[in-house]
Design a protein that fits this description.
The complex is a heterodimer of chains A (128) and B (209). By secondary structure, chain A is α+β, with helices and mostly antiparallel strands. Chain A has helices spanning 17-21, 38-46, 50-64, 93-97, 115-127; strands spanning 3-5, 11-12, 29-32, 74-77, 81-85, 88-91. Chain A has five helices and six strands; from the N terminus they run E-E-H-E-H-H-E-E-E-H-H. The longest helix of chain A has 15 residues, at 50-64. Chain B contains six helices and seven strands; from the N terminus they run αβαβββαβαβαβα. The chains are: A alpha+beta (128), B alpha/beta (209).
């Protein structure tokens, strides 16, 4: 499955082990891209400046509310949130309401960040 | 004997102070429908204080707000709940929509926070016992956001009260909302001016009481 580095825009067509290691630019944040949207995404990301890409990366970390961790790649489900430019967001509510994790599992249990679960934990700790 | 007495006392006090599950009443809907205005109205009516800041600029509420221990009474009945005001749910958030009111940097920040707010609002949904969906009665109810929210609440078996807000405005059309969602209990109110709030509280008690 294709992935795109949020910082530099590089595409990883087969979503291989490179994702687990992180992008060659050093970033660990990726968009998951559906095969059928690949060409469209290549055009969109091409138009963004380096500064805009960096801003998107930083904004996305803030939005999903997780800390950057050096050894942990994060993959965002592009079907749920689409960042067109800094400050321009499209949300697919149907997917978001499905309670699907925004971040996908990459390797057997190792790098998965289950966002609904983290939200649940946050709620539980608030209840206590 | 001392051991037995100590266990009994422990159990007695544990039961006495056992926390009852808090009923959570959530306010959901698209941005600028009047969720926070309604939250303020409820809090003013029963606690004598406001809950949050309201604004003509969309996405003013970007974080979940909770007001605890509100008791509503009507005709000898009462309910006690925690009121949860949520950020407006939208499919598109564009900083350019805010540029009329603020500079680009602040507009982008607002868009980012509003996006996070939508995700938070959806994540909180499973925690709600009852939901009030606040719709702007001057706007077309056949909207993807409204249909998605209401459909999801139904799928999760969460009781819903639909509020057609802003009935003080000429363009308001409660009937249109009723015909869009005929299977729901709908109450037309003006949260800003307090119109039909008695009917609102009665319907709320019928549903959640």
């Amino acid at each position: 499955m294709p992935h795109q580095c949020v910082r530099c825009g590089k595409f990883y067509v087969d979503g291989s082990i490179d994702i687990v290691k992180g992008c060659e630019c050093g970033a660990k944040l990726f968009f998951f891209v559906k095969q059928e949207h690949l060409d469209e995404m290549k055009n969109v990301s091409y138009k963004l400046t380096k500064k805009e890409k960096k801003q998107i990366e930083s904004d996305v970390y803030d939005i999903i509310g997780i800390e950057r961790k050096k050894d942990r790649p994060v993959v965002l489900d592009l079907e749920s949130i689409r960042v067109l430019k800094p400050g321009k967001y499209e949300l697919d509510l149907i997917n978001l309401f499905k309670d699907r994790p925004l971040i996908y599992k990459l390797d057997e249990g190792k790098y998965m960040i289950d966002l609904p679960e983290s939200f649940k934990k946050a709620l539980d700790s608030m209840d206590k | 004997m001392i051991n037995f007495l100590s266990k009994w006392l422990n159990k007695f006090f544990n039961n006495l102070f056992k926390r009852k599950k808090k009923v959570k009443l959530g306010l959901y809907g698209p941005p600028n429908g009047g969720k926070t205005t309604l939250a303020n109205r409820i809090c003013q009516d029963w606690l004598g204080e406001d809950m949050g800041k309201v604004s003509e600029i969309a996405h003013e509420t970007r974080e979940i707000q909770i007001k605890e221990q509100i008791t509503i009474k009507s005709k000898g009945r009462e309910i006690n709940f925690n009121l949860v005001d949520t950020p407006g749910i939208a499919t598109k958030i564009d900083y350019e929509d805010f540029l009329k009111y603020m500079n680009e940097k602040d507009a982008k920040k607002r868009a980012k926070e509003a996006t996070k707010g939508v995700i938070d609002a959806i994540k909180w949904l499973d925690d709600m016992d009852t939901v009030i969906v606040v719709l702007d009665a001057t706007k077309d109810p056949y909207d993807q956001v409204n249909i998605t929210i209401i459909g999801n609440l139904q799928a999760r078996n969460i009781p819903v009260l639909l509020v057609a807000n802003k009935i003080d405005l000429k363009k308001a059309d409660t009937k249109k909302i009723k015909s869009a969602f005929p299977q729901y209990d709908i109450v037309g109110i003006s949260a800003k001016f307090g119109n039909s709030m008695d009917e609102f509280y009665e319907k709320l008690l019928n549903m959640a009481g």
